[in-house]
């Protein structure tokens, strides 16, 4: 009897060993198939996402085209109505068109001459071997030439306008004068109504209409430069007596009257410009138009003293670039916010993958212990119990297969050894303009790495231009370092990750290799810019300097250990 039992147990042991080996091979084959299917599914998902993106882009373009077509149709109808209304003044309109053309031509000629003067000045500065005094004299001479060119251009523009006005009066006679006076009276009445009743929503203009002609990477720094140049030119017009007009023959009275209306007009305009936001261009433009009408109306008491149209248009252009700078600044801040939001979402998903892997591993270990226990029970069971334990063992092995499959899928999705973020950061206060660090981190919170880099080793914090999530972050980082090898800042130590290049070149390359991510093209460098401003203010304000020193003493008090050392 014992021999028979031993034989039966040996047969069962061989059977279970063969069965277990067969199950392991089947599990291995299924894992390979699952990996292949997962890879194929990921490829299909990438293709689907690509087609969805293209479809969304096409829909957006189609909607934009429909809006443009509708706007063109409405504009066409309005133009037809205006043509019918003004057909009897065709000669006058032709004169105005010619006037505008000549004025624009004069302005373009001035810009070309100014650029040529600047170029000659730059070449002279590079090649000059004279003393500093000679260079200064040359600079002043070129600056006077540029100012003279601009003054001549403005004077020529005014002459063209006056000539066109006289020609229009000759052609139109009383009809033209009546039409012009009627337009002026209507504008003044509307200006008075606006001042009394307020502006409401009637003059709201979408700010994006000001950005239509700007390039994608046109930062608010460039808009600020244009604004600065405009303000300098406007000051030059005042100095050259081209901002105002008056009919006084006496020079002193003429000067006093013109200065009066210019001060009144500029006071209103400067007050209006101080309220510039990214979304109030239309209202502020109308306020400046109304100020122009009201100041000119009040100036009639001083022999028709008034603001020149050229100066008025220059100040409107000043408003335009101020709004553009505000809008671009807001857009860049929004880009930065979206980058950080995207990073948080990606890290949340990665944490979920890690949790799924840990849960699956824990479930596997539990099932393996239960299977070992069931196998031990089978070996000790009698014939009736064996069938029950065998069924339980098969159920546990099925659950183990599912747990291993779940774990393998989670590992495949997470790709823990290579996933990470490639970051592009800068620090203008520490390294200057156009110097960027291209690095990578596998941390769950990649911004922690950026903050760590800016904590103690550099005086200012880093600005994040892009945070690129990648399934193979080390490979992407190596590819970027290889691409911009010649731009490496430290030519001796190849491990340094700083590069001197245009950010647009890096952005274009990233897009060329098929990676889409959010970019912030302009570095905020907030603490650095505030430091420069504070240093300039403290040069002339000793009270501010004393307050700053007191603040620093409070913010960074001497430690107890330092006091002991001094004693």
Automatic annotation (TrEMBL):
Keywords: Coiled coil. Pfam families: MUG113, SNIPE. Signal peptide: none annotated. It comes from the Bacteria. The lineage of its organism: Bacteria, Pseudomonadati, Bacteroidota, Flavobacteriia, Flavobacteriales. Residues 430-513 form the Bacteriophage T5 Orf172 DNA-binding domain. This is Meiotically up-regulated gene 113. The keyword Coiled coil applies. InterPro entries: Phage_T5_Orf172_DNA-bd, SNIPE. Residues 20-68, 96-148, 316-413 form a coiled coil.
